[in-house]
Automatic annotation (TrEMBL):
Classification via InterPro entries: Acrylyl-CoA_reductase_AcuI, ADH-like_C, ADH-like_N, ER, GroES-like_sf, NAD(P)-bd_dom_sf, Zn-ADH-like_protein
Lineage: Bacteria, Pseudomonadati, Pseudomonadota, Alphaproteobacteria, Hyphomicrobiales
Domain of life of the organism encoding this protein: Bacteria
Protein name: Alcohol dehydrogenase
Enoyl reductase (ER) domain ranges (all copies): 14-325
GO MF annotation list: acryloyl-CoA reductase (NADPH) activity
Species name: Methylobacterium oxalidis
Length: 328
């Protein structure tokens, strides 16, 4: 066995601590596939795990990082062999199972997805859980029967990771995209991703009414709380909103009015334990439908030793788009 570099969250009498140190391969958790991690990414949940501002980590010590791309080193799983390129998102990795901010990971092969053709490991992590979740939202809207000819689509938290990919995907699918953001100076960035209109998030931050003027036929919300309540109140009859985040909070101060008076549907998105068929469909669609030029425009890259410095930034909403973490 050998050691490798990793970010490690520990908990002692003084609370949670984070350190970049050597980690012994013998201390990796059970799994039938060992992966040499080449890339990871930065998600909101990673920021929570590294700072301890929410009880995301439920086992100590813990290597944070909920996504990785890498190369199989050894495998007892029938579907994977050494040398295979793979991707992992979700399944409690970085929360209850040692995660991705390390040079090596051992996981269950059933959690992995083969790296989709047409994507490099870095591009797969530029997508990461955030982009994968955005695709699950689009798939839910498609399944509901939402179509671009029914009206505009709203994206909240549009300059964040989920929002940026959602704007690009919806625009590519032909939607008139309204991008909601509270960050000055992001209009050109969002229009470059395909947004047709920019909406100040202040318009969605006031006390929500049971119903308001109908403004959009569909939505992807990564914010929750009051913002989601206002989005629902402004959704057109028989429209649908896919909800996948809680950046503003876990509460939802709304009423039944949008649902029983307009027939609005609220579509919940769980990206952590998505069954394999839907998971693979989402990755296949991302490889086909996401404009890789726009993906590059929304992506920055950092080295593994530097990722912890961005934890507070993503929680404060000061990061833009997607951040790739180079591990290897």
């Amino acid at each position: 066995m050998s050691t490798f570099k990793a970010w490690v969250v520990d908990k002692g009498e003084g609370g949670q601590s984070l350190s970049f140190r050597d980690f012994d391969e013998a201390d990796l958790m059970d799994g039938d596939v060992t992966v040499r991690v080449t890339h990871s990414t930065l998600n909101y949940k990673d920021g929570l795990a590294m700072t301890g501002k929410s009880p995301v980590v439920r086992r100590f010590p813990m290597i944070p990082g909920i996504d990785f791309a890498g190369v199989v080193e050894s495998s007892g799983h029938p579907e994977y062999e050494p040398g295979d390129a793979v991707v992992l998102t979700g399944w409690g990795v970085g929360e209850t199972h040692l995660g991705a901010y390390a040079e090596r990971a051992r996981v269950k092969g059933d959690w992995l997805v083969p790296l989709p053709g047409g994507l490099s490991p870095a591009q797969a992590m530029a997508i990461g859980t955030a982009g994968y979740t955005a695709m699950l939202c689009l798939m839910a809207l498609d399944h509901h029967g939402a179509r671009p000819d029914q009206g505009p689509a709203i994206v909240t938290g549009a300059s964040g990771g989920v929002g940026s990919v959602a704007v690009a995907l919806l625009a590519r699918a032909g939607w008139h995209v309204i991008a909601s953001t509270g960050r000055d100076g992001e209009a050109d960035y969002l229009r470059g991703l395909g947004a047709a209109e920019i909406l100040d998030r202040a318009e969605l931050s006031g006390p929500p009414k049971p119903l308001a003027k109908e403004r959009w036929a569909a939505g992807i919300d990564a914010v929750g709380s009051t913002t989601l309540a206002n989005v629902l109140a402004m959704t057109r009859a028989d429209g649908a909103v896919a909800a996948c985040g809680l950046a503003q909070g876990m509460d939802l101060p709304t009423s039944v009015a949008p649902f029983i008076l307009r027939g609005v549907s609220l579509l919940g998105i769980n990206s952590v334990t998505t069954p394999q068929p839907k998971r693979r469909e989402a990755w296949a669609r991302l490889a086909r439908e996401l404009d890789l030029g726009k993906l590059a425009a929304m992506t920055t890259t950092v080295r593994l030793p530097d990722v912890a410095g961005l934890a507070e930034e993503i929680l404060a909403g000061r990061t833009r788009g997607r951040t790739v973490v180079e591990v290897g």
